[in-house]
Design goal:
Order of helices and strands: HEEEHHHHHHHHHHH
Keywords: Lyase, Transferase
Pathway: Carbohydrate metabolism; tricarboxylic acid cycle; isocitrate from oxaloacetate: step 1/2
Strand order of the largest sheet: 1-2-3
Largest sheet: 3 strands, antiparallel
CATH topology of one domain: Cytochrome p450-Terp, domain 2
Radius of gyration: 22 Å
CATH class of one domain: Mainly Alpha
Number of helices: 12
Shape: globular
Helix content: 55-70%
EC number: 2.3.3.16
GO molecular function: citrate synthase activity; lyase activity
Family: Belongs to the citrate synthase family.
CATH superfamily of one domain: Cytochrome P450-Terp, domain 2
Length: about 260
């Protein structure tokens, strides 16, 4: 049986008839005694957060639940419902939209903060090296809709400072994030404030989450908004609604004439 039982190996769950243990904790001891955010931490990390860590972690999860029907993932969920898909399929369609461009900035910001933390030099040279390797877009800063300030970021950074005072984290990555913000303002000659992705990246880095988990945690957070919008669209009804009303048409680009078709 070892060849079969060893096919999958996990330290996350152990169970047999009448017994379920998650990370070594009987499920009945967890139910009613840990929050959902604490449960996410336990399942992903294998340990339990301190109360101060749990509060900061939950704040990051709450902050990113929704950003309106114009967000591609939310729009995809609503359109999926109008195409007759049930909630689970609508949610899957939406989560699959969360890639490098829409949904990946938090992971990228954690990577950038880590790069700066490991850099042997000042913040400007660290950013120069990042841009040379990754391109000119600085993840986690600036927002095309929320100008001049993304209202979520200052609140989260305030909570990071409180958590640092409580010993939940050491504030290292908060200082890096603020240094990036200051450097960008000097370079551009105007403020380029931290946005939600930059702020949640500070929190996840402060709490010791690996960069790829920042995207996974964002997917969990945004799934709340996705479910809400998919259910709202279900209740509103509507059939086969595309990205624009039917009276609007796309722009048609005629085929370019070549020497053979002229």
């Amino acid at each position: 049986m070892s060849d079969v039982s060893d096919w999958w190996r996990t330290s996350i769950i152990d169970m047999e008839p009448g017994r379920i243990e998650l990370r070594g904790h009987p499920i009945q001891d967890l139910i009613g005694n840990v929050s959902f955010a604490e449960m996410i931490w336990l399942m992903v990390r294998g340990d339990r957060p301190t109360p101060a860590q749990a509060r900061l972690f939950e704040a990051a999860l709450v902050s990113a639940v929704d950003h309106g029907p114009q967000a591609p993932s939310i729009a995809a969920a609503r359109m999926a419902v109008t195409c007759g898909l049930p909630l689970n399929n609508a949610m899957a369609s939406a989560v699959n939209m969360l890639g490098d461009v829409h949904g990946g900035a938090g992971e990228q910001a954690v990577e950038m903060y880590t790069h700066i933390a490991d850099w042997d030099g000042n913040i400007d040279s660290a950013l120069d090296a990042w841009v040379a390797a990754q391109g000119k877009i600085i993840p986690g800063f600036g927002h095309r809709f929320h100008t001049p300030v993304d209202p979520r970021a200052p609140r989260l950074m305030h909570l990071v400072r409180e958590a640092t005072q409580e010993g939940a984290c050491n504030g290292k990555f908060a200082e890096i994030g603020e240094a990036v913000e200051a450097s960008l303002a000097r370079r551009k000659g105007r403020p380029i404030p931290m946005n939600i992705d930059g702020a949640t990246a500070v929190i996840y880095a402060e709490l010791g989450f690996a960069a790829p988990l920042a995207r996974g945690l964002f997917c969990l957070s945004r799934s709340v908004g996705i479910l809400s919008h998919a259910w709202e669209q279900t209740e509103q009804g509507g059939r086969n609604k595309g990205p624009t009303p039917p009276s609007y048409r796309w722009t048609f680009d005629p085929p370019r004439k070549t020497d053979e078709t002229a």
